[in-house]
Structure formats: C-alpha cells, structure tokens
Amino acid sequence: MTEEEPLDPVEELLNDQADAAEEFLEGLLKLFELDAEIDSDLEDDVIVMEVEGDDLAVLIGHHGATIEALQDLSRSVANHKTGERAPLILDIGGYRSHRRDIVQDKGRRAIESVLNSGSSKPLEPMQPYERKAVHDVVAETDGVWSDSAGEEPDRYVVIHPGQEEDSDA
After folding, report:
1. Span 27-58, pLDDT tens digits
2. Were both Cys, which of 1, 100, 102, 156 would link to 133 (CB 3.0–4.6 Å)?
3. Which domain holds residue 147?
4. DSSP string, 37-52
C-alpha cells in the first residue's frame, strides 16, 4: 500500500469548502430539475466552480444577478461548513468568461479613445470581477491608468491618460 502525500492545510480547507459548495449547487440543480455538471478546481488558492449544461439561463438571471446571488450563497455555505472565508468564483454556462471577454474589449476601445483624446473616460457600472478585468487590460497598456468610482451597485471604472498620480498628496 502506497501512502499519498498529505494535502497542505490551506488546500485541504479549500477542498472541504469546494465540496460543501458543490453539494449545495447539486441540490439546487436537482430542485430546478436541471441536468448539469459541476467542475471545481483550485486556481491560486481560489475555488473556481463551473456549471455546464443546457437551459441554465434561470441560474444566470438578468445581467448576471442570479449568478451573483448563487455565488454568494455557495460561498456562505462553504464558510459555514469550515468557519473560514471561502474564496469562490462561480461561472454558469460560461457566462462570466464571456462577460470578461466583452468588458475587456470595451476596455480596449476605451483605452484607444483615451489615448486619442487625452481625456478620461468613465465606463458603465460593472460587477467587481468585470471591473477587475478592465483594470487588468489597462495595467497592460502604457500611457493610461484606471481607478474605480461610485458606490455599489453602480461602481464603475474610469480610464485616465498618463501615469497614475501619487495618492500621497
């Protein structure tokens, strides 16, 4: 009999949290009578859960409102099971990855506009993961910087020309 190497404590905690969130989502899928598969992976100490199947729009909701709520509920279930904060991202039917591509394209177009005009450009309100996707695109581009403004749920990204100003002033 061969001994398996023990998991490190963080990885063991994340696996326990992923199991709890997956069990919750499986129960939800059963209640909705939806046929779908759930895949959980750990990426940089974040639980990434993907749900794939047919007719999952009911789990995404208008502008992703339902998927946000399900992510919060899944995270809460995982938190409750372990007593520790669960870093969890839920994607259903590829919605988040598709939205990330769309907002990154919008960010690239806004960057072009800022570089051409020399004026700052605010974008529409976005979910936190969408704002991060835009900030990531901006960070890869010379001559512009970004910050977030507004209050949730209407928080948005502003892309500025030049270099980021010191916040020590």
Report:
1. 999 999 999 999 999 888 889 999 999 989 99
2. 100
3. 97-161
4. EEEEEEETTEEEEEEE
